[in-house]
Amino acid sequence: MLRRPGRSGEEPPTSPGSWTRQVDPWPMVSCDAQPIPPHLRNRRPFMSIRFKIILGMLGVCGLFVGMILLLQCCVIAPSFRRLEAESARRDLLRCVNAIDRDIDAISNGAFDYSAWDESCRYIQDRNAEFERVNLNMDGMMNNTLHLACYLASDGEIVFFQARDPATLESIDLPDLRECFRKPGSRWAGLRTPEQHIKGIVLTGRGIMQLAARPIITSKKEGPVRGSVIFGRFFDAAEIEHLARQTQLALKAWPAGAPSLAPADRDATNRLRQGDPLLLVARDKQVLDAYASFPGVDGRPLLVIKATIPRSITAQGRLAARWFNAAALAGGLAILVFAWTGISRTVVSPLMQLTGHAVHVGSTGDLKARLAMAGCDEIGALAREFDEMVRHLAEAREQMLETAHRAGMAEIATEVLHNVGNAVNTLSVAAETLDERLRDSKTGGLTKAAALLEENRGRLGEFFGQDPRGGKLAEYLARLSQGLAEEQRNNLADVERLQRTIRHVCDIVALQQAHAGSADFLQETDVADLAEQVLQFHDTAIRRAGIEVVRDYAPLPALPVSRNKLMQVLMNLVKNAVESIALRDGPVRRLTVRILARPEEWEIAVEDTGAGIESADLARIFNHGFTTKADGHGFGLHYCANAAAEMGGRIVAASDGPGRGAQFRLVLPQAAAVETATK
Fold first, then answer.
1. Tens digit of pLDDT for each residue in 484-499?
2. Separation CA 205–CA 254 (nearest Å)
3. pLDDT digit string, tens, across residues 608-648
4. Distance linking the first and last C-alpha atoms of the chain
5. 635-645 vs 562-582: helix crossing angle, rounded to 10
6. For 558-582, how does the pLDDT look when each residue is reduced to its tens digit (9 = 90+)?
7. What is the pLDDT, as a whole number, of residue 670?
8. Which CATH architecture group holds 522-677?
């Protein structure tokens, strides 16, 4: 971001070529500072032009502020209040519509049972098997139904079962039974296939949503043989579900509830008198919206209250404050610019300077120069701008060069990290070889040779009669076996050193070829490669007392980038061994698994070590991120890049600190072919 000198509390720049001269804030008013002519002093009180302009501009500014306040009070604030009221009405209507949808869903469920030949037969023969199979309330509770009733056309209740929504225990609703079977009941009075009843009723257990459908044939033909009635309690759980669905803070109660807060009781009375919807501003922060929901008989039965934050009017007040501040600032700006008359001396040059800045910013042309002539402040600013653009062009070139070097440095860092892992193995193997050579049994051979040299002239007597002769022969035999074992171990360590050195050479060659050539694919036995990696870390594994578990699924030799795969496994096994060594636990286990699937194969490294924080899992493969005190954050970043280059992915998982970790390298079966064709 380009900063102008002396702005936002900063000191003006003092570098050579920068403009540091203090500027008079009122550059064009010095003419008013002339002495008053003597012939005018005694005529009338003198009023300067500056004072007249100030009075005129203050009057205009006062009129402007008055118009703004009038507009805010008469237009803007009422508009926000109306908008808030409309929003509250829409929110409350969403609740009412959601209840209607729930009742419609119950009605549709009742229709599925009513328009059915089996229901027609059941209402006539009272088949117990139909009840057992189709009227199982346990199954209906899965549909959140709390009532199922079959009602004959003459008002007889053929089947009635209700469940408590909280305990799911069977309950009786005598008032509802009486309502269903009383003479002239609307629930038993359905006469045509199109008739239906839906709505809410008040029961002894609370408000219930009910829907009744006529019992007709599966072809939706009459005559109507009765009604199927389904119901659901409108309880606290249903209200909570409705609140989640509408994203509102809701309450509901029967219209005739006896104990209510005074504000709620007053709103309920007004709703019962005919107001379908009521808005009450509790304070500047909260708006209470009330709506009544009619029962089956059309009278208000349920009152719904939504507590709605008055965010719209709050935003309106905030917008009004900002509007007033902006209007005042704008008025003051207009006052200053009109008073000083700087348009000819400032605005035009500034427009030219701004146009040049926009051109440079939009096109990125850092070679363009303003070359504005002038010895005033704007001329100095134009020259400084040109100088700044020149420095910016130089900085861009330096940034590109730095970015190029940073990319090269990252590649070099990966190479050094991978070589460092291999050199660690070299160091461990060299230490082991050094310890073995220092503790070699060749010293005993020298002593035996000295003893033989001492008895050179009497070897027969020495071996035949001297007790040391027999012991020497036995000692030489054991020494021969020990030296042979020592030679085998030394050869194995030397072979490991040679293999590690070849691996270092392969890493360097791979990174050198990375910029210009595709990966070299080799037919690789993955299990054998995993064994080589474990062998590299054998000394560290034994020192830490780690149990190694191998779980290898049979895989054929696969065409993969052997060096990349080996380096990824080297990093993963090394991290696992170090993690286990950090934790003092009873189980010290390193597990290496190879899994085969039809489309992909996987190699997993699991440990029982220190584990990984859940917050770190999302960034564990980021460049430079590490949880080790002496780590650099390059290894896992390299592993992620290498896995992507091989056409696969690497995934980390952990149950938390102290609970181990798992790293899975997943590669598709076709990854080798795809990599080879890139």
1. 777 777 777 777 777 7
2. 12
3. 998 888 888 888 888 777 877 666 677 888 888 888 888 89
4. 41
5. 150
6. 888 888 898 899 999 999 998 898 8
7. 60
8. 2-Layer Sandwich (3.30)
Q: What is the average pLDDT across 296-312?
A: 86
Choice between 168 and 444, residue whose per-residue pLDDT is larger: 168
Residue in 626, 615, 618 with CA at minimum distance from that of residue 656: 615
* Res 602: pLDDT: 93
CA distances from 419 to 211, 270, 503, 524 (A): 76, 83, 9, 22
Three-state DSSP state, 278? strand
Q: Which amino acid would we find at residue 505?
A: C
Average pLDDT over residues 251-279: 84
DSSP codes of every residue in 321-378: HHHHHHHHHHHHHHHHHHHHT-IIIIIHHHHHHHHHHHHHHHH--TT-------SSHH
Residues 456-467 have pLDDT tens digits of 767 667 776 677
Q: Read off φ and ψ for residue 450, nearest 5 degrees.
A: -65, -40
Q: What's the pLDDT band for 17 if we cut at 50, 70, 90?
A: very low
Q: Residue 167 — φ and ψ, nearest 5°?
A: -100, -15
Instruction: For residue 266, give the nearest of 320, 229, 305 by alpha carbon.
Output: 305
In the prediction, which pLDDT does 41 show?
Answer: 47
**Bond preceding residue 45 cis, omega within 30 of 0:** no
CA-angle at 102, arms to 98 and 107, nearest 5°: 140
SS3 221: coil
Q: What 3-state class would DSSP assign to 132?
A: helix
Range 83-316 has CATH code 3.90.1150.10: no
Binning pLDDT at 50, 70 and 90, where does residue 30 land?
very low
CA distances (Å), 570 to each of 297, 347, 513, 566, 650, in order? 78, 68, 21, 6, 14
Could you give the CA distance from residue 132 to residue 147 in angstroms, rounded to a whole number? Answer: 16
Residue with tokens 């590669």: 667
Domain boundaries, the chain: 83-316, 440-514, 522-677
Tokens for 171, please give them.
């309950």
Amino acid at 94: R
**pTM for this one?**
0.42
DSSP single-letter state for residue 613: -
**In residues, how long is the chain?**
678
Alpha helices in 439-466 (DSSP H): 442-454, 459-464
**Beta strands 547-552; 589-596: pairing state:** parallel
Tokens 């929504």, residue?
165
Q: Which pLDDT does position 393 carry in this prediction?
A: 78
- DSSP assigned state of 294: E
Task: Supply the DSSP string of 32-95, one letter for each residue.
Answer: GGSPPPHHHHTTS----HHHHHHHHHHHHHHHHHHHHHHHIIIIIHHHHHHHHHHHHHHHHHHH
The whole-angstrom separation of Cα 558 and Cα 529 is: 11
With beta carbons less than 8 A apart as the criterion, state whether 209 and 52 touch. Answer: no
Q: What six digits make up the tokens of 593?
A: 């698994």
Which is higher by pLDDT, 616 or 507?
Answer: 616
- Which of 459, 439, 435 minimizes the C-alpha distance to 448? 459
61-75, 279-293, 505-519, 657-671 — which is least confidently predicted?
A: 505-519
CA distances from 172 to 163, 164, 254, 379 (A): 8, 9, 21, 94
**CA-CA distance, 292 to 271, in Å (whole number)?**
6
Write the CA distances from 278 to 298, 304, 331, integer angstroms.
18, 10, 42
- Report whether 87 contacts 93 (CB < 8 A): no
Nearest to 575 by CA among 667, 496, 654: 654
> What does the block give as tokens for 601?
């194969």
